[in-house]
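Provenance and format

Records in this collection were gathered into a single text stream. Each protein contributes a sequence line and a token line. The two records reproduced below are adjacent in the stream.
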Amino acid sequence: MRQIWDFHGGVHPPENKSQSTSRPIRKATLPKTLILPLSQHIGQPAKALVEPGQKVLKGEVVAAAEGPVSVAVHASSSGIVTAVERRPVPHPSGLSDVCIVIETDGEDAWTHLTPCEDYRSLSPEQLLERVRQGGIAGMGGAGFPTAIKLHPPRNDKVNALILNAAECEPYITADDMLMRERADEVIRGMEIMAQLLEPEECLIGIEDNKPSAIAALKQAASGTHIEVVVIPTKYPSGGEKQLIKILTGLEVPHGKIPADIGVMCQNIGTAAAVYRAVRFGEPLISRITTVTGDGVATPGNFEVLLGSPMSDLLQQAGFDASKTDRLIMGGPMMGFTLTDPDLPLVKTSNCIMAVSAKEFPRPDPAQACIRCGLCAEACPAELLPQQLYWFAKAQEFDKAENYNLFDCIECGACSYVCPSSIPLVQYYRYAKNQIRVTAQEQQKSDKARERFEFRQARLEREKEEKEAKRKARAEAAAKAQAEKAAQQQDAPAEADPKKAAIEAAIKRAQAKRAPAPAQAQAQAQAQAQVNIAELQTNVDKAREKLAKVRETLAESDGANAAMQEKLRNAIDKNEERLAAAEKALHDAQNSAQGIPAASNATQATQADPEQQARAIARTRDKIKTLTQAIEACRETDPQRAAQLTETVEKTKAKLAELEAESAPTDKTTDKPPEPNLEELTSQVEKARDKLNMMQGMLDDARAEQPADEAKIAKLQRAVEKNQDRLAAAQKTLEDARTQAGGAGVKAASPEEIEALTSALEKAQDKLAMMQNMLREAQQESPMDEAKVAKLSRAVEKNQDRVAAARATLNEARGDAAENQTSTDGAGA
């Protein structure tokens, strides 16, 4: 006689099992539509392999396992796939999931199967592969993939293989009827599991309220090493940890699983499914489901295809909506209410209850906890339910977790005995879900931080590598220069006529290129006049803005005090800006007066023609904008139009002065200074950057919904203006290069070439960084279109900069080579 242990707590609710055991298992009819959720198990959802319009056969794989903890999904019957979409699925939270919808053709035609006459001849790997291809998940509880549980542990030996036949939940009799009618399949399935795990003993735990099933199992197990152990009836003896304690006396430690103590548990229905998958090659496409309650005329057990609507199964059991208060999936202790009778049956659907209000009355409103302690006495996990309830209600989830919240099996024994009708299990489920969500968010945050730190380390490493290469090149160049100088010092001191002639020629060329003192003075005067013109423009703008703000304050008479206070503050700021601009102008004028005249023929020096041209263009644009504003407000605000007209007249007068200053004169001047190519190149780059910025703002404005037409028009004008400025700057640069080329350009030194090479490398590094950021943005889900567009523009801008830097370097290298060639020719 095998020793039996007891577990803490437990309850004895009314069984109500006889209603559904009076009839044999019936085969459910073929439904017109099958709805197969891709997540009928714990782990990753399966990946759909079919598309709408595709024909499938019974048993064909329609969704493959995605990852190690996942299970395949098979077509329960032949037909046409009509949709792959999200639909409601059986879940306590009423969630939806991606489902494959099949319109059955009525033929119920099987796909090709591969049966095995002698499964004992198969290797463990072959057996596991058949179980995995069968898409079998635990059919008694959470739906854990069976192939993973049957994988032999590497280091630990399985001491006991337990088949859970307790079925302790009231109303449910699916396993009971399966054992009565198909005990041979259950025993053969357990033998296959034992062949995989090689346990020391095989036990079937069954409650003593199932005499017919006990007799059938003992008869089928005769002559095998399987022992049928009858245990007392008590809820929840069918819990995995509780059944292990009853049969072996072992307790599963906190945070561990039964495999950690050498025990493996499986369900009755799972064993039968394993046998059919290995012996006949049949995947899991049907199961035994109990239909019971006062709302059906003929309660019983049905072999129903997975994906069948529950409403079809209820109709076959004589469903009467007038007698039904609600539908429950599972038992009265651990089940949950169904919101829709058309939800599909899944691999874990062991029972559907159509209960009346008399049979299953609504719970009373929850009252305050009286700390009676009945919940702690009933808890089979030896927890403190009332303390967990307080923590969950106060959202102190960390404390609830410290009190071993996740050891709760949600059996409902605490809620069953609670005199205050507190839905304790619902509080525990809520707390568990919040803890899982927090953990997932923390995991995402940690991964993002790791990615950022890795990227920063990579960039720093690349920066150090590039700096090391640059230093190595600089050291090599310095070494070469030192060797060259040493060679020159070691050379004989005799005068070389050819070398002396070359050096004299170089000195004469340098003397010609050096600007004369008068020319340098003229450049300084021109620059001073340009600065004064710009500062005068700043003063005029500051005065205009101050006048506008004062006018706005005058018009806002009667407005709220906050608005008037803001306007007064704006006046103070603009007065300060005007004073600063006038002081800068005054200082510049005083400084200009201290510069002596270049010659008697030039008493006043004109500003740079390019800057004067830009000032004229800005003034013309301002006149155009003011004219448009006058036309817009002529009818609505005549006073404002008159004020703007005065501003236009002043601006036109200023334009006339600028045009007069830029007009050519007949005065004789010194030779114009040599153009500054570096400054002109910088101006071109600035003009190009500003054009790219304005173009980006225009693209963003066009992408906005709804589009702001006025803003787009304004930005379009700004883009056109900057295009003109860029073209003018490029033309000036080209002319200067042509002039400099005719006069002879100084050959680039090794140090200058080194600097240009470093600038090219920096531009290439920045381009690579922007390209990486663009690729990362394109791979984000969902993709940020605005961010991608912005990064694309940045990549294009940096590509232009790399091209310009490369062209400058190539030009410098070519000039150096040309100068070297001319020197060699002179030496010859």
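Adjacent record:
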Amino acid sequence: MLAPLAHAGSFTNPVFKGQDPYIEVVDGTYVYSSSGCGIADICVKQSRSLTGLAKAPWQAVWKHGPGGTANSREVWAPELHFVDGRWYAYYAADDGNNDHHRLFVLEADKPGKAIGAFHEADTGLPHGQVKLSDDHWGIDPNVFTAADGKLYLTWSCTNQADSAFPQRICLTRLRDPVTVDGPTVYLSTPTEPWETRDKPIQEGPVGYTRNGRTYITYSGSASWIPNDYAVGLLSLKPDSDPRDAASWVKSGPIFDHHGTVYGPGSVVFVPSPDGKSYWNVYHAIERLDCKPNAYACRDIRMQPMHFDASGAPVLGVPVNAGVPVDLPSEQAQEGRDVAVGTHLAPGTGYVSVARFDDAPARDLKHLLMVFEQEGMGGIPLWESRDGGDHWTHLLDITDQAHKGDAKWQLRWQPHLMRMQRASGGLAAGTLILSANATGNDGHDHVATQDLQVYASTDEGKTWAYRGSVIKGGGKPSDKDNKGVWETNIHVLDDGRMVAYYSSEQHKAEGYNQVLAHKPSTDGGKTWGKEVLDVAIPGGVERPGMAIVERLGDGRYAMTYENIDGPQNGQVQIKFSRDGLDFGDPQRHGDPVITQSGAWPAACPVIRWFPAGGPEGVIVVLAERAGGGGDQGGRSLYFNNASGRGPWWEVRAPVQKLTGNIHAGWTQALLQRDDGSFLHVTSSSSPQDPTSPKSNEILYNAAPLRFDRYEAEDAAMTDAVPVPDRNASNQRKARLGAGSQARLRFQINSTAALHTLRLRFADVGIAATPALRVNGAVQPSTTGPAHEPGWNLLTVKAPLLAGFNTIDVDGAAYVQDIDYLQVDGDDTP
């Protein structure tokens, strides 16, 4: 009998590997806590959707100190809780001896919803150990607010200093999130058959209050035995003191093994994104032969649940693996696109990141970031000291030129850069911020713009106004306005500062909008004559949002959007030897486009990195795409031939939602010292996707596979692109049967023997495509790919220096082609 297939709007369990789940929901973001993520002792994932946690990146929270300390080993079941406006992390740990397991708490360095750095809380004991009324063994701490409005701590305990059974459920009241207020109370002891299978154990308690009633769920029996675990419930009698053990009533099991789901436990209940339903998130296993124990096979699962009239949970039975489960409400309505990335803060768009990568203050992990925020609060400045894993809000940079005038503020299109060389009296290493200050009329409508420049010589702590590049006027919605927008500042080799920007002040000359630049020789105090870089006659096309990047060969590259051009919003690229002359302003430049015709559109950002080949790689990010590309702008476009030839897509580290056109306006991308790429962008809110005011800033770091050429980007003959969420870039090419069907890849390479790998899948009937390198069919081997459902065809062949033509010819039957890879492996 075939397993049922997941349908659109559904998912199947298990969702991802893991154990001991705990989720805190803050402002619609699911914050999942865990240990053993591989990068730290305590980690979190964050997602705006429940199933999005599967692909969300791990974020390090805390690593233990020197060995031998009380909390240096066996960090178990951490939980992050947001209490009174600050994050706290509760966990159990020992010194390497399980008999010494005790409870500990970390406190966030700063208040706020962003997850940043933590320190061991001041509890009165070393290392943030919770100061209980006894010094007994304990694990699995959880804090909750009971029906009496007080904060409580519950955990699994023994009544002695070591781990001798039985394990009970304990509770104490808290004076504040880190201070105990009273004695330890032993609420419950394992006595029922379902909680004494192999060993008498109660653990993993989670408390909650609903409909005026307080409950604690917990797991019973031995966690290391595959089919022992089950879930019980402690219910507090109405109007009772939680510290009165006699007022708690035990029941269970309320959730036990069923079908092929064994050992379910560690349940936590969370709402759907729209709050219309509740979900049970838990761990379980689906095999009884786990080696060395059940811990090796645990995975995370989720399924709907509800509460009865008294607030008690009704969980049903575990759903077998592979059985379709309808997505949480609202998430299903979004077409299954979920955001991937860590939530930082509310923000409309225009992210810009600067790194302290210059000598002598070189620190590749020290980053500063700015972006647009809603309202008149200025430009927010954020700092990271660990390469972008954690961020702290430093200050808001405000309009100094119009200080005291409530109608003015520094608001839009910020660009942040760190000077690599001195310019006009400013030393190398000075931070430069340029942004659009706006002035409102009497009706709070924007009437005036001022492209201002600020400098900081103390790593962003203070800022000084330098000058104005250009001023503009008129409401943005007026067709005859004289607006100015989107500064991008660089320092040339000769020390001159150059500001690139968009201007609507040439409409009388027949230009809807132009791209221009001005030089400055005094560090941005005054600016020289305006020079046009792109000016398309006819009064229709609207080039905008120019970004300039220095390439590895010394040239400058400018990308921009061409709104209302032949392909609306298509990204164009122009080159310059000196950063001043980009050729004929009436010439568009070259389109950024794949062989199949896909192109990025709107709000482009260009970056160059010393990766992807001897010429490095140019990467273009954009808000959306056309020509069959990802319309949500969730792919990046790269070229490893200094801008020559075709462009290729690669999946962006942040998978944003694009419910409004501001989501993804001007993104940030930089390469970290570990080779991964930090990506930061705005994303629309799942709760209010069409409103830019509700956008959020997301960040994530991940590798980028510049050795991988997506089949959907190749030139196609008798082939079509097909969506597939299991494909590398969530799309693939379906190649027709017969030798006349072909995918053609034009690939820039070095002259050497290379290993080519083609990932493909059968469509009903097994067949193998042929691979031609510069016209010659190559002998190949075929085997299973790293990910199930795909095959891997491997060829070793010499490639020429420069461009090579690699063809994939159709087989006897239809094939799905995912990508062609040059060297490297096929891991995700």
